[in-house]
Amino acid sequence: MLYELRIYTIYSGRMDAIQARFKDHTLTIFERLGMKVVNFWIDGEGRSKLYYVMEFSDLAERQRLWDQFRQDPEWIQVKRNSEENGGLIVEKIEEFIMKDAGFFHPAQ
User: Fold this and answer.
1) Is 22 contained in some domain?
2) Over the stretch 14-62, which tens digit does the pLDDT of each residue have?
3) CA 78 to chain centre
């Protein structure tokens, strides 16, 4: 199993827009395409950042699903609509691919 940590830096004043886009559209599109979000966070220190982790069986699945997402007609329209009046929302996206560390076992 692989995990992808995604860190989005959001343009000033656009945090509400990114949250609405995820809540109202993006998470539903992910689900429809079979993309699994493990957890989601908003920066706890007030920075304009959003963090989430996704789970994939391997790199090939990750690539296939992200390609499907980027080409999805609903996503293309949602992105266009959400940026129409207020401009771009996401300034930068950082992606980190991670796998379980065999030595760590969470407390039960």
Assistant:
1) yes
2) 999 999 999 999 999 999 999 999 999 999 999 999 999 999 999 999 9
3) 14
Q: How many domains does the chain have?
A: 1
- pTM: predicted TM-score of the whole model, two decimal places: 0.92
d(CA 102, CA 108): 16
- Tell me the per-residue pLDDT of 46-103, one tens digit each, with 9 for 90 and over: 999 999 999 999 999 999 999 999 999 999 999 999 999 889 999 999 999 999 998 9
Domain assignment of residue 55, given as a range: 2-99
Residue 75 to residue 65: CA distance in whole angstroms: 13
| C-alpha span between 89 and 36 (Å, rounded) | 23
Residue 106 lies in a domain: no
107 occurs within a structural domain: no
